[in-house]
Structures are given as C-alpha cells and as structure tokens.
C-alpha cells in the first residue's frame, strides 16, 4: 500500500509538472485560444473558400492562361506523384545500404566475447563514432539539408535526393543498430559453441533474424520519405509539393485539393502495400523516429 | 581408447557460488554418458566447460588429449568445430529453414563468407547430405520448412541434424528433452544413443529424467552442489543414492524458483 501510494504521488507530480511546462511555454510564446480564429472578414472568407474547395477539387486548371496543349491537371498531378516517388525511392536506395553499414558499426552484436582491453577500446571507439555520426546527420532536418545543397549545387535533382538520403541514413542506421542489438542471442551463442567466429555469428545467427524487422522499418521510412519528398517541393525541387505550392500562391485552392487528394491516394496505397508486407513477415510496424 | 575429456580438479565460480566444485572426471572417446541430478546441480556449467565456452577458474581440462587452458581464440574455434553442442533452447535461427540451420553446423570449419553462401546457394552435395541426415532423424519432408513453423519435437530433430552435419567427435546435449512429451523424449534419447553407436562419436547428455538415463546409458554421472556424487552403471545406482540425488534441500528449492 505504502509503495503504491508513493508511486501514485510521483505520477501526479510528473503530470502536474508537464502541464506546468506547457503553460509556461504557451505564456512565453504569447499563445491565445483566439489565435485560431481568423482576425477579420477577409481572412474568414479565405478560410471558408479553402475548405469549400475541398468539396470541389479542380478537374480543369483554374488559370485561364494555361494553353489547351498542356497536360490535363490529373495527369500533371500523377506525373508529380511519379517524381515524388522517384525522389523517395532514390533517397531510400542510397540510405538503406549506408544505414546497414552504419547500423553494423553502431551495434555491439558482432563483438568478440570475451576480448582484450585494447580490442574492446577500439571497438567502443568505432561504436561511439558511428553513433555520433548518425546523430549528426539526422539532427539536421531534410528541408534544411535541401536548402544547404540547393545553395551549393543549385536546383538539381541530386541535391534533393542527397538531402533526403542523409537524415534518413542517420535515422535508419540508429534504429537498425538497436533492432540488431535487441535481437535474441541464443542462436548466436549456440553457433559460437560450434566454432563460428564473432562476425560470422552476427552474419548468420543475428542478422537474418533481425531482417524482417529491418525490412518492416525500412518500408515505414519509405512512407516517411514520400511525405518528405513532397515537402521538398516547397523549396523548389520538382515534386508534387512544388505544384501544391505554386497553385497555393495563386489562391487556386481547388487545384491544391486535387493534388492533395492524389497524394493522399498514393500514401494510402503505399500503406496498404506495407501492411501486406508486414503480414507476410509477421512483424509489427515501427514507430516514426523522424 | 584415448580420452575425449579429462578434467582435473576443475572449479567454475559465479561470485561465491561454485557451480562446478573440484570435479575430476574422464570420459573416453565413443562413450555414452548421462549427467543426472537436480537442476542447479552444475550439469549445464559442466557441459559448457567441456565445450570450452566456460573457462574454469581452477583446475585443468584436456580435450581429445590436448591441454586447452592456453589455446588462442582460433585454436578454440577449431576445437569447437569438432564438438557439437545442443543447448537446452536448441539455439536455432527461427526464421531460417531447416536446411539453412543444419548447413550452419559446418560453419566453424567454413568461415563467414562460405557460411553466407551456404545460406543463399547451398551446394548440391550439401543438400543431398542434409536430406539424408533429415531422413535419418525422421523429418526429411521438412527440408525447406521454416524452423519457427515446426513443432518442438521437430525442432529438436533439426538441432540434432545440425550436430550430425558437423561430423563431430563428440556431441554434448543439455536437457535435450525438457520441452517435449515423454514418448517423444524417449524417441529422441534413443535416437541420440543409436547415432552415437553408428558414428562412434562420444555422447554426453544431461537429463532430468532418471528413468530415461537408466534405460539408455551404460554410464551415469550424478551431480549435486557442483560435485560428482555418483559415477557408475545404472545397476550400481541404489535407492539411497537416487534419493540423495533428487532430495532437494530448501536452499536449492529457493535457488531454482
């Protein structure tokens, strides 16, 4: 009784403390509930227009100046989705192999056991360096990487792809190394007992076992990459995000909704595909770490 | 016959506890031995000492006539590749197929790259041999089945097949029948003893099940508190000694719980 009452008391303090931090943040930022309400009639009108447009997505361009020879809007949207997919897929193709190498270096499952002090120190240095490197590349958001690369290379598709691949390598690598280190070691121990070396044990006893989880998580990150790739359009890289941004600038809200619905459709399709893969591999979805 | 394992005053300590306490023991090559005694009596630690996974704190160990105390890792690995160990939890990779698990039995001799190739593209010769082994242990139709889809008894057979594919000079098995029903347990122990007689390898099995040990093994080694309290044929094992082996003190009950 005494212990549970004490724990309850501690929980109450934690919840209370969190609420207090929230109130402090809100106060220092000058948040008011009225901030959610449009300030005047003009803004009200625009808000209404935007949400009304959701019911009537554009089937034709709202801009009368678009020549008749241009692609119909749905076809332009689908081309935009294909570009978005290409960036996401290209970035993941760079990120997954990088993350496998980083994840291996950042895990301890392949260390010889027992090992001498010098070897242990060297392994620990490699481990920490890999972890630090992964933290560094994922602590900068893909949008910021994109801005950096755009100013360095100009608007090139490679800039967009590398900007996505860098933070994704960091996140994938970190989660890979943790999935690998959490994998059960009983088979690895049994293989060591019949003469397998430490790296060999990792390759045949631990890695194959972690593989379904690695695939599931990579697939989940592919979904994240799709969304991020769309967002890269807002800094000028040609994905569906660029079309959304351009239509939005001109207040063509019905066009914006056409593109948003197409993007939503793609995300739902990819999600269904991912669910089918998870079912086959019998794994649970990974949490979003990015 | 040369001796497979020779222990001289061997002790293994976990903190203050002596899991193996000044044990001297010789097991000849080709012998079939059952380790009996209550859980916590040191059987598992003794088996892990025999396969060199546990370095004893005191005493000396000779395996196949060689002193192993100052073996370097590469020498230890070479020695281990000649001793098949079947741990209590079997140590199979559950999401690999039966053949993939069995082929890893030779991994100690073949190295990392060859093992990866074995998993992905096994050679025809290996496939044929493994099929033959699985046939011998009674699950040849499970060659390409995932281990996680197999029953407990079938998984045991995969572990035994992996040990056989290793072409070992000795097989050490830790409670190989603890997770199956009595009829299947009897079959598995019988199979291990038959295989030992066929191939001539030394067999050392720890068994909770006294009846099985008495039925199939010509030599029983009884352990309590890390010490050997009986070493002889089943006929020599009197009622009194059986009682002493399995009459648990309160302290042991607490430790097992």
Secondary-structure map:
The complex is a heterodimer of chains A (290) and B (257).
Chain A lengths: L1 H28 L11 H13 L19 H33 L11 H23 L2 H12 L3 H26 L3 H8 L4 H34 L8 H10 L3 H29 L9
Helix pairs in contact in A: 3-6, 3-8, 3-10, 4-6, 5-6, 6-8, 7-8, 8-10, 9-10
Chain B lengths: L2 E12 L2 E12 L3 E5 L6 H8 L7 E6 L2 E2 L5 H8 L2 E4 L11 H6 L3 H4 L1 H9 L3 H14 L14 H14 L4 E5 L7 H18 L2 E6 L2 H7 L2 E6 L2 E6 L6 H8 L3 H7 L1
Parallel strand pairs in B: 3-8, 3-9, 6-7, 7-8
Antiparallel strand pairs in B: 1-2, 1-4, 4-5, 9-10
Task: Please provide a written account of the structure.
The complex is a heterodimer of chains A (290) and B (257). With 290 residues, chain A is an all-alpha fold. Chain A has one domain (73-281): MetI-like (MetI-like fold, Orthogonal Bundle), CATH 1.10.3720.10. Helices cover 74% and strands 0% of the residues of chain A. In chain A, helix 6 (157-182) crosses helix 8. The longest helix of chain A is centred in the C-terminal third of the chain and has 34 residues, at 198-231. Chain A is globular and about 75 Å long. Chain A starts with a helix and ends in a 9-residue tail after the last helix. Residues 286-290 of chain A have low confidence and may be disordered. Chain B is globular, with a radius of gyration of 18 Å. Chain B has helices spanning 43-50, 73-80, 98-103, 107-110, 112-120, 124-137, 152-165, 182-199, 210-216, 239-246, 250-256; strands at 3-14, 17-28, 32-36, 58-63, 66-67, 83-86, 170-174, 202-207, 219-224, 227-232. Chain B has a domain at 92-167. In chain B, the strands form 2 sheets. Chain B has a 6-stranded mixed β-sheet with strand order 6-7-8-3-9-10, with helices on both faces. Chain B has a 4-stranded antiparallel β-sheet with strand order 2-1-4-5, with helices on one face. Chain B is α/β, with parallel strands linked by helices. Chain B starts with a strand and ends with a helix. The interface between A and B is medium-sized, with 21 and 34 residues.
């Amino acid at each position: 009784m005494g212990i549970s009452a004490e724990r309850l008391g501690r929980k109450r303090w934690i919840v209370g403390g969190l609420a207090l931090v929230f109130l402090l943040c809100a106060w220092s930022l000058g948040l008011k509930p009225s901030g959610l309400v449009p300030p005047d009639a003009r803004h009200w009108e625009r808000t209404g227009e935007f949400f009304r447009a959701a019911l009537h997505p554009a089937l034709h361009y709202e801009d009368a100046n678009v020549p008749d020879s241009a692609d119909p809007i749905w076809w332009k949207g689908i081309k935009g989705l294909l570009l978005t997919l290409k960036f996401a897929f290209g970035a993941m193709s760079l990120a997954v192999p990088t993350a496998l190498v980083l994840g291996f270096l950042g895990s301890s499952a392949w260390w010889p056991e027992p090992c001498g002090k010098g070897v242990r120190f060297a392994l620990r240095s490699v481990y920490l360096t890999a972890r630090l490197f992964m933290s560094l590349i994922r602590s900068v958001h893909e949008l910021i990487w994109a801005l950096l690369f755009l100013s360095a290379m100009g608007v090139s598709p490679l800039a967009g792809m590398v900007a996505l691949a860098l933070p994704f390598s960091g996140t994938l690598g970190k989660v890979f190394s943790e999935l690998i280190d959490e994998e059960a070691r009983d088979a690895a121990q049994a293989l060591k007992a019949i003469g397998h070396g430490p790296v060999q044990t990792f390759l045949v006893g631990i890695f194959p076992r972690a593989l379904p989880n690695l695939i599931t998580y990579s697939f989940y990150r592919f979904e994240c990459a799709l969304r991020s790739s769309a967002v890269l359009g807002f800094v000028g890289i040609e994905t569906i995000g660029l079309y959304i941004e351009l239509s939005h600038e001109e207040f063509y809200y019905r066009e914006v909704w056409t593109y948003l619905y197409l993007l939503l459709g793609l995300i739902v399709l990819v999600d269904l595909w991912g669910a089918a893969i998870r079912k086959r591999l019998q794994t649970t979805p990974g949490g979003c770490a990015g | 016959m040369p001796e497979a394992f020779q222990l001289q005053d061997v002790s293994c300590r976990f903190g203050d506890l002596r899991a193996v306490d000044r044990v001297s023991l010789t097991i000849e090559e080709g012998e079939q031995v059952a380790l009996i005694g209550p859980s916590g009596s040191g059987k598992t630690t003794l088996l892990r000492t025999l396969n060199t996974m546990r370095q004893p704190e005191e005493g000396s160990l000779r395996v196949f006539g060689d002193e192993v105390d100052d073996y370097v890792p590469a020498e230890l690995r070479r020695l281990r590749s000649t001793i098949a160990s079947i741990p209590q939890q079997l140590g199979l990779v559950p999401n690999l197929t039966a053949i993939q698990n069995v082929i890893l039995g030779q991994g100690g001799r073949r190295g990392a790259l060859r093992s990866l190739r074995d998993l992905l593209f096994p050679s025809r010769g290996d496939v044929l041999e493994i099929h033959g082994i699985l046939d011998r242990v009674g699950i040849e139709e499970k060659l390409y089945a995932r281990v996680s889809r197999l029953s407990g008894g079938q998984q045991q057979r995969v572990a035994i097949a992996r040990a056989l594919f290793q072409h070992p000079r000795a097989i050490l098995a830790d409670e190989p029948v603890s997770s199956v029903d009595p009829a299947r347990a009897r079959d598995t122990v019988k199979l291990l003893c038959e295989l030992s007689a066929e191939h001539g390898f030394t067999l050392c099995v720890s068994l909770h099940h006294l009846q099985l040990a008495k039925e199939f093994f010509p030599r029983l080694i009884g352990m309590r508190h890390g010490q050997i309290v009986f070493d002889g044929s089943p006929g020599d094992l009197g009622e009194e000694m059986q009682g002493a082996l399995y009459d648990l003190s309160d302290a042991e009950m607490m430790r097992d719980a």
